[in-house]
Amino acid sequence: MSDIGRQSLTDKAGAAMKPDSQKSNTEHMGDKIKGGMDSMMSSVQPNSEKSTSQQAGDAFSSNSNENQPSMMQKAKNAMGMGDN
Q1: pTM of whole model > 0.70?
Q2: Per-residue pLDDT at 2
Q3: Where are the domains positioned within the chain?
Q4: Which of 18, 55, 70, 81 suits a disulfide with 61, CB 3.0-4.6 Å?
């Protein structure tokens, strides 16, 4: 279950596992918008108010806004599925 205004972990995983080359422009745009909104909400919501699963998801996806690639993005890049 996700917190209000946040992407669920299954939505994040689904978007991350589909190769970028197989996504339409609409999917790319949607991923960027959803990811940006999720990152923003992650930053403004204190950890004390996040569900356990959302805290774990934030740790895994590096939603710390330090301009570092997440573990998921690093894995996609290593498999040749990322946009880098």
Answers
A1: no
A2: 54
A3: 9-78
A4: 70
